[in-house]
Design goal:
CATH class: Alpha Beta
Organism: Butyricimonas virosa
Number of domains: 1
Protein name: NAD(P)H-dependent oxidoreductase
Radius of gyration: 18 Å
Distance between the termini: 39 Å
Shape: globular
Pfam families: Flavodoxin_4
Structural class: alpha/beta
Keywords: Signal
Largest sheet: 6 strands, parallel
Amino acid sequence: MKTMYFLIIATVMATFSMNVEAQKTSNGKKVLVAYFSRSGNTKAIASHIKELTGGDLFEIQTAKPYPADYHACTEVAKKEKNDNARPELKEKVKNIEEYDIIFIGFPNWWGTMPMPILTFLESYKLEGKIVIPFCTHGGGGEQSCFRDFVKNTSKATNKKGFITSGGAASSARPQVEKWLKEIDIIK
């Protein structure tokens, strides 16, 4: 019975401690982690950010899914980029005005952000918000990803983005934590 009592107390204390930590790390600001991910790499980084900031996750999805085949998907993405398309999104963040800090993640597609990210950015008024990009890539690096992001979020406050190769995404939590401290999001 005594052991059970201490176990319950320890669980309650751990839960309380996690909640306090999440509030402390986001500096009292409400955090949204929005991401677009084809293979799961960008989702892995989004999950790290969510865990470290206590933020809410939102997956950016297109109304018409991309082809499952990699090469077919890249051809659609290339055409969208060439056409400067704005693919329709499956759903919107209904309460975006409540968020102070918005992380937006995406893979590098053809040297920049996937076009659904532009649809997302153009769907909201981001003035007064802190917006922070994060990107995964398959070897192409940053290229124009962050420069294009800042160009399309110029009315918001931008902070330095995070980039990693897709293959390193699932184990990048220490690097994500270091970056979040560098940009003064967590302590």
